[in-house]
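Lecture 7 notes: from sequence to structure.
We start with the chain below.
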Amino acid sequence: MNLLQIITPRLPRRYLLFIAALVWTFTGGMLLFRGILLFMGSQYLFWIRLIFSLIAGTIFYILLFSRISRKHTRRILELPLEKPCAFSFFNIKSYILMTVMITAGITLRKSGIIPREYLSVLYVTMGIPLFLSAFRFYYTGVFFRERGKAVSKV
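Predicted structure tokens for the same chain:
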């Protein structure tokens, strides 16, 4: 056993599901919170922006994020080790995508390229599917069974 294997933090797959759920909950909640604050800062087309955000966020969840969360859940369940690395709740591609999206969100907010009224729509639209997707991880974590006996409705 080498040093890297010794110092690698390892957790059961069930805990990885809960870590993923918490990350998705935090990220979705943060975007919703920031988006709602931006909404409240401007009454310009308030109801139209709010309704659009709710509809677009729900569509994003149905068409894209439900599949993404299903894929990540299956990947975690199918990890070959019983106690994989604690950071393997995402794969490398997802870490890169997350970094790009966080950087883009901060850049858009700080630069003022997109007016805050419209940035609020973007934040809420992206926060809804992230927040909803977290529930798949919670559900699968709660009903987790040892290898080969995981919840089939993933």
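Points to note: DSSP finds five helices and no strands in the chain. The mean pLDDT is 88.
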